[in-house]
Write a structure and sequence with these properties.
The structure is a single chain. By secondary structure, this protein is an alpha/beta fold. The protein has two domains: 7-167, 3-Layer(aba) Sandwich (Rossmann fold), CATH 3.40.50; 173-292, N-(1-d-carboxylethyl)-l-norvaline Dehydrogenase, domain 2, CATH 1.10.1040.10. Helix content is 51%, strand content 13%. It is built from 13 helices and nine strands. The chain is globular and about 60 Å long. The termini are far apart. The model has no long low-confidence stretch (mean pLDDT 95). Bound molecules: nicotinamide-adenine-dinucleotide (NAD).
């Protein structure tokens, strides 16, 4: 089965996808890529991929196709529009969506594709651009187990933790749980930094000390320096986190599960977006605390 996948289609060559595509090339797969942004395509072609003009063309030339797109409507369009993959599926009739999108939509996409004998896996990731660059992503996969086994060699080239977690939509549900924890954790770090700053404590020292105690977290470790330096450069944009927090709350509403902490942190992200900071990195949520505690100068924008 492993040797059967040689040609991998890849659609969505943004912050994450460009690294993931490069890692698939390094792992020896033949890549056929597409993105609506021509600069993104040019960069990956330089790394050894072949370009295709449309999702349908990617499907026509590939054994399996991977998607790494911003949101649910983007995935829907690449699958079902006039030049979508449903019309020219890849040879192994397998599509793996690694974007973070709605688990409810995933179940519908999966059923619509299954009616055409096309397997669809939801395989969202955690680990950010560094995880994408280092092929050390955590990948949580929902869908048919035979399809998972077929996709496994491709996914192994992208992550160090690749787990089949259940039926269609289960991967996205786990990813939304991950995002809930990340969002609430970032807010907790912002609050600790705001309090420490007002108390005159050195924030870098605080981070260093807390990394050795029970408040240690991936967010404090990886995003803490950018929070303290007020560097807004985006790895994961505030707009993308808002998209995920919305998906978390839609699922919670459907299942009647109250999530008060998620609701609270969502208001902070909305505050950031209302101040024009949606393209800033996630870590720049601290700017909301700058404003409310009147502790720092005007917020920087990632574009400045
Ligand atoms: P991005 O916006 O940087 O990249 C998305 C790419 O998709 C862009 O190059 C865009 O031009 C392309 N695109 C959009 N619509 C398209 C279409 N219809 N056809 C072809 N190409 C299209 O986003 P990203 O940061 O790489 O994130 C991608 C997904 O991964 C999102 O769902 C995000 O939530 C998730 N994710 C991101 C991170 C992160 O740290 N950035 C981490 C984990 C998961």
């Amino acid at each position: 089965m492993r040797k059967m996948i040689r040609k991998v289609g890849f659609i969505g060559l943004g912050t994450m996808g460009q690294w993931m595509a490069a890692n698939l090339i390094k792992a020896g797969f033949q890549l056929i890529v597409h993105d609506v942004a021509s600069e993104a395509v040019a960069k990956t072609v330089e790394a050894g991929a072949a370009a295709a003009d449309s999702p349908a063309e990617v499907g026509r030339q590939s054994d399996v196709v991977i998607l790494m797109l911003p949101n649910t409507p983007d995935v829907q369009s690449v699958l079902f529009s006039n030049d979508g993959l449903i019309h020219t599926p890849p040879a192994k009739r397998l599509i793996v969506d690694m974007s973070t999108i709605s688990p409810v939509a995933v179940r519908q996409f999966s059923a619509d594709l299954a009616a055409k004998k096309i397997a669809f896996l939801d395989a969202p990731v955690s680990g950010g651009p560094t995880g994408a660059r280092d092929a050390s992503l955590t990948i949580m996969v929902g869908g048919d187990s035979d399809a998972f086994e077929m996709a496994r060699p491709v996914l192994n080239a992208l992550g160090t933790s690749v787990t089949h977690v259940g039926n269609a939509g289960a991967g996205q549900t786990l990813k939304l749980c991950n995002q809930l924890i990340c969002g609430v954790n970032i807010q907790a770090i912002c609050e600790a930094l705001a309090l420490a700053r007002a108390s005159g404590i050195d924030l870098s020292l605080l981070r260093q000390v807390l990394l050795g105690g029970s408040a240690v977290s991936w967010m404090l470790d990886k995003l803490g320096p950018a929070m303290i330096d007020r560097d807004p450069a985006a790895g994961f944009r505030i707009d993308l986190m808002l998209k995920d927090l919305k998906l978390v709350q839609e699922l919670a509403f459907e299942l009647s599960v109250p999530l008060p902490a998620t609701a609270l942190v969502t208001t902070q992200y909305l505050d950031a977006r209302a101040h024009g900071e949606g393209s800033n990195g996630n870590q720049a949520l601290f700017t909301v605390y700058d404003r409310s505690s009147n502790q720092a100068g005007p917020p920087k924008r990632a574009s400045e």
